[in-house]
Design goal:
Blueprint (H helix, E strand, L loop, with lengths): L13 E4 L10 E2 L8 H4 L5 E4 L4 H14 L2 E6 L5 H16 L9 H10 L2 E5 L2 H10 L4 E10 L4 H14 L5 E7 L6 E8 L1
Parallel strand pairs: 1-2, 1-3, 3-4, 4-5, 6-7
Antiparallel strand pairs: 5-8, 6-8
Length: about 190
């Protein structure tokens, strides 16, 4: 009688290049040493999640990505915590490729945060993110993405949303969701305009 509507959506093409990482469960892994090679040049990726570049490498990659219409998303951590960056990038990629409900985080949210910010800071714990938000003097926090993990209760989720929102510009935004299989305590990505 009723048939489900099939929505024809293009599959996300995501490239990931992080130091000290050998593979990724979702997306296409490109070793940092091969980032200028054919995988990036020969594909039509929607976005490249990257970290661990020197400034001159970053400048060159910005030009390459702009020429291909590829969103370059550069992740940092104020303490250079590579584990936090790995957790956040992999959790975001996994959520983007997941069908887990609520399915309310999209590459467009990350693109919007990236384009609104000068810096993207990755945190895998609520306390480290809130400590940074309280003490940072880099600029204005314009937005963020928050994923609660595992068995996070709704009241805890709402409380963290409120705490994060209190530090975000009144014109900023916070995209939040749940990701049950997330590595670490939580995933928080903050955009700062310097």
């Amino acid at each position: 009688m009723f048939e489900p509507i099939e929505i024809d959506m293009d599959e996300l093409l995501l490239a990931i290049s992080l130091p000290e990482l050998d593979s990724v469960p979702n997306g296409t892994f490109i070793p940092l040493g091969d980032i200028w090679g054919s995988p990036l040049q020969d594909s039509n990726f929607d976005a490249l999640f990257v970290s661990g570049l020197f400034p001159e490498q970053s400048e060159k990659l910005v030009q390459v990505c702009a020429g291909k219409g590829l969103e370059l998303v550069h992740f940092e951590n104020p303490s250079n915590d590579l584990a936090a960056i790995h957790d956040v990038v992999l959790n975001l990629a996994d959520k983007l490729f997941s069908d887990e409900m609520p399915n309310n985080i999209d590459i467009a949210d990350i693109r919007n945060l990236n384009q609104s910010s000068d810096f993207l800071f990755a945190f895998n714990s609520k306390s480290s993110a809130l400590d940074f938000m309280t003490a940072q003097e880099i600029g204005v926090i314009v937005g963020g993405v928050y994923l609660a993990h595992g068995g996070a209760e709704l009241d805890e989720y709402e409380a963290v949303n409120k705490e994060l929102t209190n530090h975000i510009s009144e014109y900023g935004f916070l995209c939040s969701s749940f990701y049950g299989l997330g590595r670490s305590e939580c995933t928080i990505l903050l955009g700062v305009k310097g």
